[in-house]
## 1
Amino acid sequence: MIKVLMVCLGNICRSPLAEGILQSKVDSTKIVVDSAGTAAYHVGNLPDERAIEVARNYGINITGQSARKFTVIDFDTFDFIYAMDDSNYQNILSLARNSRDEEKVQLILKVSNSTEKLNVPDPYYGGKGGFENVYKMLDEACTIISKKL
Ligand code: 4NP
């Protein structure tokens, strides 16, 4: 079983979308996908309604998810840890115990060469358009990840 973890700040906007999108593209008997946040603000909450809606518009149901905080144990559980932005990336790395942990962490947009922008923008304080934009960025990255796994 290959295990992939998507990480953002609150685990209610970007990483739940990344989890749902990648899950929709892989064989669930071979690949497990989960998500977490580096902050605990929203632990136990459903994804943001705007994330739920944009995912639903593309045929993906993310309402079974519940926010949780990233922990150091995730380095043991997961093979690949994808950070949504630089800040998340640094927060995850600050918890790494050794180079093996560090090597598991990558900025998600680094998988696609087509973009120079490596941060998935935080859509929390914006409108619905931000979620649509995030969805498209993550869909492209997850297509590439699903082929590489
Ligand atoms: P996410 O977005 O990291 O993509 O889940 C955010 C959600 C909540 C907050 C910030 C970003 N917040 O400050 O509560």
Note: The pocket of 4-nitrophenyl phosphate is lined by residues 8-14, 37, 41, 122, 124 (CB under 6 Å).
## 2
Amino acid sequence: MAIKTPITVAYGDGIGPEIMQATMKLLDAAQAQVAPEIIEVGEKIYLSGNTTGIPDKAWESIKRTKVLLKSPITTPQGGGYKSLNVTMRKTLGLFANVRPCVSYAPFVSSNFSNIDLVIVRENEEDLYSGIEHRGTEEVYQCLKIVTRPGCERIIQYAFEYARKFNRKKVTCLSKDNIMKMTDGLFHRVFNEIAAQYPDIQNEHLIVDIGTALIASNPERFDVIVTLNLYGDIISDVAAQVAGSVGLAGSANIGNQVAMFEAIHGSAPDIAGKDIANPSGLMHAAIQMLVHINQPEIATLIENAWLKTLEDGIHTGDIYSPEHSKKKVGTREFADAVIARLGQLPSHFKAAHYKPGAYAKIECYGAQPKAESRKELVGVDVFLDNPQDLTAQELSGKIAGLGGPMSLIVITSRGLKIWPDSSIETPYLRHCCCRFQSSRDIKQLQAVSHSDIINLLARMNEIGLDTIKTENLYTFDGELGYTLAQGQ
Ligand code: NAD
């Protein structure tokens, strides 16, 4: 008898238990070689006073089986409850969010009949680090963190995925025309890694035109790799354009652990009525079977599911008098898929996951590079300026305080307001005073941390509120910061 792969299963909240029962029944009927361990996460755990929504026993199971099939959960509003998905991604190192997006026209309404794209979204970095600060009465900020290993891992994953699943092209989306350092790094690493996969086409698009093309011409895309926030947004755009928000599954992949779920939420409005569509979770289960190297069972289930759709057996959310023959509930839909196990679709291309080819993809990024020579050459000092001192007044007060550093420029929201500014009504409340060891960026000399501390002490003595500093470094002589607009 084949050895069963242990998997952890969470039934979740709202419609979660119904769609999971339907999915587990299907896995059982298809003879998936899995040994489920049930854990409790979500609303009940939150309301028992555990703000993470997941008890230690559940962690223990996930870390042991390394595979989680999860129904959606309800995060109670207010009360400091943390998003379970974010906690899991970070704790388990689930660096890749993989969302296949397929159109099933004419059976599911969409303007496009040939969408078959996969979004590979970076899952741990970017603006989702959740590091936000309020510096003044009026100004808030959010820190965008992008690391080289993070970029390498996700981009390598996208190309490995393309190669394993016989995809032809990987498209990178970023906004490096504006964010030259963070998104610029992502784009640079994409070019480096793309060069190692000559068998796969590559292209880069700025995320705004890329998103417009997903909406207007989605069939041109194959695999898309992008940063966390853009990936979050385009996943929903793509799913909506494909017309299959309720049908899509997603995988959260780490090198050790992987989590599979539907993309929709717990739909409390229809919970307990046996009308929810279990297809999103079924697709997540298919992704899981491929991941644990049971491609034959994945193929069997996907083809039975496609045949059910073609036969017009539809749940209420996708029912249309034109293309449906029978409106069914959650349980009846699962039974219809089970009854078609072994059959092939006739309208859609039959799925065929190749045996042996799809064991999980592990990506660790490149080897660490030799350290570059890092030199401290100045500092940006951010001020809360509640008296709205003009840039001229400010420069008069601070120009002589830098010791070996000179005041080079004062900016507000990235725009130069001193010297020689022609801005009519500058925003003065929050400004950034740049001190550098030299005016000429080719002549920069090293300064010390003490020079910066002394500058801050002097600014404090004259009553200025320094709310934040950013050290200015060069790396092998290259600037580690952007020049202000107009600097
Ligand atoms: P939702 O996806 O639960 O529901 C949006 C709409 O789609 C509702 O009208 C719902 O009835 C319908 N719908 C969703 N899934 C369906 C299905 N399988 N079959 C038929 N109709 C379906 O989104 P929401 O209302 O914004 O969120 C509800 C709850 O889900 C919230 O507590 C939210 O935090 C949670 N949520 C959880 C996850 C997750 O666990 N991964 C993801 C998103 C939202």
Note: The radius of gyration is 27 Å.
